[in-house]
Amino acid sequence: MLTRNIRVAVLAACLCCAAVAPAQAEELTPARRQEVLRLVEAMGGKELIMQFVHQNMNTVKKFRPDITPEKAPLVEREISAMVSEKIAAPGGLAEQLLPVFAKRFTPQELRELTAFYESPTGRKVVSVMPGAMKEARDVAQRMAIGMIPELNQRVTDVLKRDAGRSAEAPGGTTQQ
Q: For the chain, does the N or the C end have fewer beta carbons within 10 angstroms?
């Protein structure tokens, strides 16, 4: 149950980032909860939590320089256990996010998504998508930085044109 609750929390968090049109809300029955939990399990929710904990160990080490490299795995396991407990606790994150997730997908959509994520392609998406999205974000950021000079010039030009229009007097003549 703990593993399933972790997966629900991770999947629900991922869905917050997706542009998903809400489906008609349905009652969160035990069967519906199981559909959501199965999908989360197929998406590798627990593994995503563990990746998050692992990726943030450097931050923990900054606040706790007494954590030696030899002790880091011990501390990482303890942090993972605590996060899992908080997610699975009564009234915890998993319980709070389940209805949010369930109301966005019909039972049929949950089954279809689960089938996809249980397929080889779905497992690959779970595995490679975080890295692909990071790389895509880096490419987009480099492109945006490269556009700054042209963007700045175009903003300057449009403001000048607008100022010129504002200075026009009624009747089409320009005041000087």
A: C
